[in-house]
Amino acid sequence: MKDGDRIMTRTALNTAWDVLRVLLEKENTKSFVSGQMVGDKLGISRAAVGKSVRVLRDMGFQILSVPSRGHRLSEMPDLLLPPLVENKLRTDHFGRDYHYYTEAASTNVVAKSLAPTLETGSVVLAEIQKQGKGRLERIWESPEGGIYMSLFLRPDIATQEVSRITLVIGEAIAAYLEDISGIPAMIKWPNDIMMKDRKICGILTWMDGDMDRVNWVIVGIGINVNIERDYFIEKELNTAGSLKMLTGADFSRVDILTGLLGALETGYQSFLLDGFGKIVPRIRLRNYLLEKEVAVTGPRQRSKGICRGIDDDGCMILEVEGGGSYLVTSGDVTLRNSRKI
User: Fold this and answer.
1) Residues 6+ apart with CB under 8 A from 53
2) Helix (H) or strand (E) holding 211
3) How far is CA 234 from CA 129, 147, 228, in A?
4) Which residues pair with 66 in a beta bridge?
5) CB contact at 8 A, 71 and 35
6) Helices (H) and strands (E) in the chain, counts
7) Which of 74, 176, 292, 338 is the most buried (most CB within 10 A)?
8) What is the Cα 2 distance to its own chain's centre?
9) How far are the Cα atoms of 38, 74, 151, 218, 258 from residue 115, in angstroms, in the given order?
């Protein structure tokens, strides 16, 4: 469903998804299942089943229908629909409460509006974002073929620890993307994932709380998956890229999303149970900025220097020109003297 504009009634869409769930059941994926059986299981008429099959075909599903035998899925579109995600999800909490949109202005904005009803692990996802944002209100290009989602959390941590969540999430994403692609993935402190010097993923973390406690954290995640090279050339996004662009292969976004949610759940639970200190060494190994000249833009000043590492609290250690160093707790970081690629 679109955010605002409704293409079909929610009831018709939910019914189609229920029919899809039945067709996805293991015992039905290699054989035909009769419309009568589907209808009996869902408590709807055969005519309603037929209507739902037509809705699914309009979405891009290839469904074989044979008189007296029934229906069978033969091919599925690369959409992140709830039934497809549920079918492959292996988490305890992450993604179990799943809010799907074909289009949204920004998943972070939607998640914030839903905050009173969400729980740790809730996911808000859109196939396309019209007003996706990065740090400092920059536009995050969000065309078809990516994964654009917001992960909702209610951590029992101090407010000053929230920035660590960005790095914990970043490390889990980098490790997972490296595992599925075979390409080293690095963290450009504090919130970008780089592969072959291309930005593949961006993270934007919002929080609500006060000095004493955190009410909620929303982690916006954008991953360029099956976006073609020509898109980045056309948009003059010279340092961005996608998994398809780097590998030449198409990826199942459902497989990536469900696998990633598992990796994120494991990483987040480790952070809560074992502490940030257990994860810092892995973050340091993925420090894309290590020993590079950088410029840091903060709320009140701009500093230049060399990144000498990441400290135990997740701050960047910046050695400034003229000697001396200090800890950068937040800010926008850019590479100096880096060439366009």
Assistant:
1) 19, 63, 65, 71
2) none
3) 18, 20, 10
4) 70
5) yes
6) 10, 14
7) 176
8) 18
9) 35, 38, 11, 9, 22
CB 2 within 8 A of CB 102: yes
Q: Where are the domains of the chain?
A: 10-75, 82-285, 293-335
Q: Among all chains, which residue has been given the structure tokens 């800010």?
A: 331
For residue 125, give both structure tokens. Answer: 């996802």
- For every residue of 276-332, DSSP letters joined together read GGGTHHHHHHTBTTTT-EEEEE-SS-EEEEEEEEE-TTS-EEEEETTS-EEEE-S-E
Judge: domain 293-335, CATH 2.30.30.100: yes
Q: Name the nearest CA neighbour of 85 among 213, 262, 268.
A: 262
What band does 225 get if pLDDT is binned at 50, 70 and 90?
Answer: very high
CATH 1.10.10.10 given to domain 10-75: yes
d(CA 278, CA 284): 11
Amino acid identity at 141: E
Residue 311 region by backbone torsions, left for phi larger than 0, else alpha for psi between -120 and 50, else beta: beta
Distance CA 211, CA 209 (A): 7
- 26-63, pLDDT tens digit by residue? 767 788 999 999 999 999 999 999 999 999 999 999 99
The alpha-carbon radius of gyration of the chain (Å, integer) is 22
Q: Report, as an integer, the average pLDDT of 214-243.
A: 91
Q: What pTM value is reported for the model? A: 0.91
Q: Which tokens belong to 116?
A: 């009173």
Is 167:178 a contact under the CB 8 Å cutoff?
no
CATH fold label, 82-285: BirA Bifunctional Protein; domain 2 (3.30.930)
Q: Which residues of 268-305 are buried (b: 16+ CB within 10 A; e: fewer)?
A: bebbeeeebeebbebbbebbbbbeeebbbeeeeeebeb
Tokens of 164: 């660590």
Tokens of 197: 């010097």
